[in-house]
Here is the input.
Amino acid sequence: MSDKIRSQHIARKALLYVRQSSSYQVNHNLESQKLQYAMQERLCGLGFQDIEVIDEDLGCSAAGTVTRSGFERMVAQVCMGHIGAVAAREVSRFARNSREWQQLVEVCRLVDTLLIDQETVYDPRQGNDRSLLGLKGSLNEYELDLLRQRSLEARRQKAKRGELIVAAPAGYVKGEDRLEKDPDRRIQEAVLLVFTKFQEVGSVRQTLLWFLEHDLQLPVKTVDGDTRWKRPQYQTVHRILTNPAYAGAYAYGRTEHSTRYEEGKPRKASRRKARQQWLSLIPNTHEGYITWDQFERVQLAI
Here is the structure.
């Protein structure tokens, strides 16, 4: 047992914090889950008898961009002075941003709560431990930024080669390395009809009105990638007519996303970029519904 663990710590409850950053990790990195839950044995070996596991943040990032109910509940219990120690297999499980990390360390210091990982017991009331915890927090944040930059650059390079297929628009399905036409003939005919009617009437609004007058629905893709039939809206028609994928071209980086804060809450926004600002535009990568020349004429008409 560490000499940092004293009777006043053992007399209180210990909290084991379990977290993974994404749903994919929760479903596939099962060994990581087992190792994190196994920290209960370490806490028992250190003398703690009352141990509570907080695992409602499984699938939540610790980068500070989402609300973590489990982390907030853990900090709240620590603030009440009822907790002798908070534990995680790695301290990066607690937080990967300075704001939440420093909050946790400072609260633990004020109420004499220990922090424990798989290797060390930290007492934030001791200067050396507090400095070490501050250094680890900075390294965790730097590591997250580095991983994010590497992932983003790899994604950009894959997109430049035309190999990054995030989602398939209505009328297409994702193949192994390219888009393929949806095998449903009704879906194909509906997409083609949008372009045919636009060439006849000459405007997005008139095309939309024609579909509404004839009570025709259009296929749209859901967030899960499924195709649903819905009463068309202006954006539905406009999105089909302006998407280069329907002309057999691969395009990436057509929109720019940003986050702004209103009343302390993040709000995401996006805007379309000019074609010369797109990251990638590669013609003839898959079978289109119209030719590239036809697509260009549609863009001029819009």
About this structure: Residues 7-157 form a domain with the Rossmann fold fold (CATH 3.40.50.1390). The longest helix spans residues 127-160. The chain has two domains: 7-157, 161-301.
